[in-house]
């Protein structure tokens, strides 16, 4: 009889998927897809590179799942793969010649009239997200990966240490330096997107970066 996979936790879905249940694998990937893609977008930057990194991450997760031993959570393991895939895309991008995204003569100033009363708010949300993405792209790769795993993937310090294979102290240092640099890039001391690092995720004082 087929398992009702929506009622299973990650470890149960992993066990079922490792046993050949493709429905369990599909549910597992669907459950984590949004955050995997958010990690890829924030680490790799750029929609195309993020999509490529996300696709590569999902392929590697699927291929390597039979060897996943459960020593870390599935989420930690999956986000580590997503981070590495994103860093690989960054390195590929650096080897590619730069291309102009706007052709000569294109009128980028023209916009159509906004009819939907909610469109303005959605555009503002997109604008804020793009500003944040651009600021993240200015960070060194090591700082960016740590900040994204903490504030987008919502991993704790120990999980990030496992994902990046570095000591917890190094994780804390990279997150603190990354957030400080991010705040300087944004030039907004009171922006809600910037978390206040208390050193303890359970205090409720941290406000994570928008993971959309």
Q: What key attributes describe this structure?
A:
212 residues, 8 helices, globular, mainly alpha, 0% strand, single chain, Arc Repressor Mutant, subunit A, Rna Polymerase Sigma Factor, Chain: A
Characterization of the model:
- This protein has 212 residues and is mainly α.
- Helix 4 crosses helix 7.
- It is globular and about 50 Å long.
The radius of gyration computed from the alpha-carbon positions, rounded to a whole number of angstroms, is: 19 Å
Number of domains: 2
Largest sheet: none
Order of helices and strands: HHHHHHHH
CATH class of the largest domain: Mainly Alpha
Q: How would the global form be characterised? A: globular
Q: Helix share of residues? A: 55-70%
Q: Name the CATH homologous superfamily of the largest domain.
A: RNA polymerase sigma factor, region 2, helix turn helix motif
CATH topology of the largest domain: Rna Polymerase Sigma Factor, Chain: A
Derived structural class: mainly alpha
Count the strands? 0
Q: From the structure provided, what is the oligomeric state, counting identical versus distinct chains? A: single chain
Question: How much beta, percentage-wise?
Answer: under 5%
Question: What is the CATH-assigned architecture of the largest domain?
Answer: Orthogonal Bundle
- Alpha carbon gap, first and last residue: 37 Å
Number of helical runs? 8
């Amino acid at each position: 009889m087929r398992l009702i996979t929506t009622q299973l936790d990650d470890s149960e879905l992993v066990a079922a998927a490792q046993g050949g249940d493709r429905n369990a694998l599909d549910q597992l990937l669907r459950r984590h897809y949004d955050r995997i893609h958010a990690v890829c977008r924030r680490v790799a930057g750029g929609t195309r590179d993020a999509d490529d990194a996300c696709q590569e991450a999902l392929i590697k997760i699927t291929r390597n799942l039979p060897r996943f031993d459960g020593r870390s959570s599935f989420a930690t393991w999956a986000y580590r793969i997503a981070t590495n895939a994103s860093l690989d895309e960054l390195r590929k991008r650096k080897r590619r010649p730069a291309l102009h995204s706007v052709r000569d003569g294109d009128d980028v100033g023209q916009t159509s009239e906004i009819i939907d009363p909610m469109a303005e708010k959605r555009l503002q949300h997109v604008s804020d997200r793009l500003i944040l993405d651009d600021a993240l792209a200015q960070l060194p790769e090591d700082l960016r990966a740590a900040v994204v795993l903490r504030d987008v993937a919502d991993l704790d310090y120990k999980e990030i240490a496992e994902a990046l294979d570095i000591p917890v102290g190094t994780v804390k240092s990279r997150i603190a330096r990354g957030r400080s640099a991010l705040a300087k890039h944004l030039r907004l001391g009171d922006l809600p997107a910037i978390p206040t690092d208390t050193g303890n995720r359970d205090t409720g004082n941290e406000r994570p970066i928008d993971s959309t």
